[in-house]
Amino acid sequence: MKKPTADPSAPRFALPELVRPPTQASAGRRRQLHAGHFAFMRALVQGIAPKLAWDHYLRTEGLSSDLRLVRATVQWIRAEFAAAARREDRFGTARLVRLEVARLPEGAELPSLEAFAEEAGLEDESQAEQIQAYEARYGRAAQRLARRGHLIQRQLDALRWLEGLLAQTPRAGDAVASWLNPSLAAHIEQAGLFTLAQLIDHINGIGKLWHGSIPALGTAKAGLVVAWLGEHQASLGRAVGRHIVRARTALMRSELDAVVAPASDIRPLEKFIVPAELDGRHGAYRRPQAQCLLKSTNDYQAILAWIQSKHGLTLERCQRFRLHRYLGPRLHAFAPASVPSQNHRF
């Protein structure tokens, strides 16, 4: 049997999919670590209950009752810590941050030297003899506690170093997938919202029911997203408006107008500011204002005046069009075949 010949144009060595270097697009969506992740891990190292630490530092990641989410998040954080340490050639630190100190045997709580001496009837003995007797009874347990305390301190020092190396603050142009947990980010991206800026504009533009068009995003998860955006408002440079807690029909016109700030950027037309050098007021074909019937002094005002002059369809015409769309197909379906349509020309 003849062996198949290799394609000479193909690369001689193909990297497996899992070890190929990330593309620029995937690197831009890489999930980031913020100060809350480090505070959460410090709490775990110091023996705080995971549920309590999660609710205090990472509540916007999801519910602490979702144990699978909590475990997966802890594993991801430790993996990021270890990878960063290896990149800095600190392989001992990489092993240290993966160690779960909370699972080390803690041993029974040890009494103080004074309490032990009183219990053992050694009050009248010298302190050296008391210490010798104390170590004879509790030596191994004391060594375990000392080792545990030493590891805790080393891990805290490592977390302090890693925080200075890795901790980031979210920016408005960052990808949603870089900051929110993967499941939540995937649902938001399905609605065409890929950056935090787009997400904030979407929330402000729609209001209280902003999450209605996003699949699998209920009120509880939407509240977590809004809370997270509020926590990072300073670094984002944008804020979710207070108007979103009320129904849109209950808002006054002035409150709606204040939702989007005017700017020379992508904005609703009534919020768009045209730079003075581009607004056309000094154009070559401008006639003196006294000779113009339109009171606009620049192109922007002229466009708004033209739009305002278009009143749209009257209520009667709108009803007539709706009736035509509803009855038109039905009238054609029941019309006799021998009767020509009124639209036919003879």
Describe the structure.
- This protein has 346 residues and is mostly helical.
- The chain has 3 domains: 31-168, no CATH class; 176-263, no CATH class; 274-280 and 288-321, no CATH class.
- Helices cover 50% and strands 0% of the residues.
- The chain is built from 14 helices and no strands.
- α2 (35-45) packs antiparallel against α3.
- The protein is elongated, with a radius of gyration of 34 Å.
- The N and C termini lie far apart (75 Å).
- Mean pLDDT is 76; it is low at 8-25.
How many strands in all?
Answer: 0
Number of domains: 3
First and last CA, distance:
75 Å
Strand content: under 5%
Q: What does the largest sheet look like?
A: none
Unreliable parts: 8-25
Q: Percent helix among the residues?
A: 40-55%
Query: What's the overall average pLDDT, rounded?
Result: 76
Q: Count the DSSP helices.
A: 14
* SS-based class: mainly alpha
Order of helices and strands: HHHHHHHHHHHHHH
Q: What radius of gyration results from the CA coordinates?
A: 34 Å
- From the spread of the alpha carbons, the general shape counts as elongated
In short:
Helix 4 runs antiparallel to helix 5. This protein has 346 residues and is mostly helical. It is 50% helix and 0% strand.
Provide the fold topology:
Layout: H1 24-28, H2 35-45, H3 50-57, H4 67-87, H5 91-98, H6 113-120, H7 127-166, H8 182-190, H9 196-206, H10 219-231, H11 233-236, H12 253-257, H13 299-308, H14 315-334
Helix pairs in contact: 2-3, 2-7, 4-5
